[in-house]
Structure formats: structure tokens, C-alpha cells
């Protein structure tokens, strides 16, 4: 169970974050920097839903809640070190799109968990 949680929490959490990070770098070349988050977020939602529905197989809401916490912590820490500290943006990084992204990073696993456990 611990091994599976490490895969689902840390593994998938980091991979989903990394895909968003990569998309952000790609969009940086074609989209104004203040709009990148608005382009990455819808794609990130689709990827996250796919992972949560197809790759996370638990039937316990507590498991999905734990995944939500881990994924959110990964997003916050990796954003800080690999975006804020590494690129030192000239405009503030933490804006509405980032806060919505963090909120969705937490809520999507909880919503899918509620659906998979038949709580909604």
C-alpha cells in the first residue's frame, strides 16, 4: 500500500506537475507570460482527470484526500524552486491563475475520489 501511494502521490504528482511545467515552457515562446497559466490550466485539468480516473485505483476517499495534499505540496514546492527561484520573473508569479491552479490541484483528486467512492 505504501509503495502504491508513493507511485500515485509522488510519482504521478510530480509527473503531472512536470508536464505542466513543460507546457509552460512551450507556451512561453508563443503566449505572453501573464497568460501562460490560463493556457496550461485547461490542459492540466484534462491530464489530471485522466491520471486520476485511469491510473489511481483506490476506493477510499482518504486515499484521494492524501493524493490531493501530496499533489498540492509538490506543485507549490516545485513552482517555487523551478519557476520563482530559477527564473526570477520580473512580474509577480503568484496571481489568480496560480491560485486557481493550486485549488484545482487539490480539488480534482477529491472530486474524483468522491465519484469513485460513490459519495457524489
Overall shape: it is: elongated
Largest sheet: none
Class by alpha and beta content: mainly alpha
- Count of helical stretches: 4
Report the β-strand fraction as a percent range: under 5%
How would you describe this protein?
This protein has 120 residues and is an all-alpha fold. It starts with a helix and ends with a helix. The mean pLDDT is 96.
Question: What's the helix and strand layout?
Answer:
Layout (H helix, E strand, L loop, with lengths): L1 H27 L7 H20 L5 H27 L8 H21 L4
Helix pairs in contact: 1-2, 1-3, 2-4, 3-4
Task: Give me a quick take on this structure.
With 120 residues, the protein is an all-alpha fold. Helices cover 79% and strands 0% of the residues. It is built from four helices and no strands.
Descriptors:
mainly alpha
Amino acid at each position: 500500500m505504501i509503495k502504491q501511494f508513493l507511485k500515485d502521490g509522488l510519482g504521478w504528482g510530480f509527473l503531472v506537475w512536470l508536464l505542466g511545467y513543460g507546457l509552460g515552457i512551450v507556451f512561453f515562446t508563443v503566449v505572453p507570460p501573464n497568460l501562460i497559466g490560463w493556457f496550461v490550466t485547461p490542459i492540466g485539468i484534462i491530464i489530471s482527470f485522466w491520471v486520476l480516473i485511469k491510473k489511481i485505483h483506490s476506493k477510499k476517499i482518504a486515499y484521494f484526500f492524501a493524493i490531493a495534499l501530496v499533489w498540492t505540496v509538490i506543485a507549490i514546492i516545485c513552482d517555487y524552486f523551478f519557476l520563482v527561484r530559477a527564473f526570477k520573473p520580473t512580474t509577480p508569479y503568484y496571481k489568480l491563475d496560480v491560485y486557481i491552479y493550486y485549488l484545482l490541484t487539490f480539488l480534482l483528486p477529491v472530486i474524483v475520489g468522491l465519484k469513485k467512492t460513490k459519495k457524489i
